[in-house]
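Notebook entry, structure prediction.
Reason for the run: the old model in the group folder had no record of what sequence produced it. Starting over properly, with the input documented here first.
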Amino acid sequence: MPEISIVEEEVTGRNRVVIKDERIVIILRLHFYDREFSRGSVSVSEEEGKIVIKASREVIERTKNLLTRHDNIAQVAWSLLQNEYRTIDRLEDKVEKLQNASIQEYSRDLLRSILAIKKNLFHMHRDYIRLRNMVETAIDENYYRGEMRRILRDVNEMIESVEYLVDATTTAIQLMQNTLSAKMNEVMKILTVIATIMMPLTLITGIYGMNFRNMPELHWYYGYYFTLSLMLIIAVAMVIYFRRKRII
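New structure, fully documented this time:
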């Protein structure tokens, strides 16, 4: 069983298999999510009987607990890809929280958070598709066929999980829009009730605001108090009616 050597070195690039000096080099792009989303690449190759892993310090720190002794670089690559399940689980928890929040409120910050998560999921989905293509090519070329088939199975599962989370973020946006529509409907209902109550009151004030000479109420001593009382009675009656109909 070859020894694993870890080298701190910045690695860039997407998922691919490189044939370099008759050596197979597997480059993986890994994804991480704590409070923020990040990506990092890692290189796995076999040199002088050793399995050499090259990655930045951050990637090494995040994945060192996944590295155990393996027979070949494909098995090491498979163990590193187990990090993706941890990332997907954390994103799933985040999406669930966003869905719960979207039912309660509508805000630009919440919408921005949902769209940011959705964008990250799109990045992951694209990387997984490229990883699947890489693995299928390796299988066709007969590179570590048994291990690559196991990786392919996991990658397909990851793709399905990410697609589910993308749909979940879309659902969260729809829930937030429904919440906004419901609140707008409540506001419009209240405004409609107020306008309906004001219509007969406006009619009364309009009639007695014409000031024609042959309007006997204009010279009535109690006309002003009667009109105010009539308007108050109409308003209270309409409020009682709307409450009984459970409109307000």
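Summary: The chain has two domains: 3-183, 184-244.
The old model has been moved to the deprecated folder.
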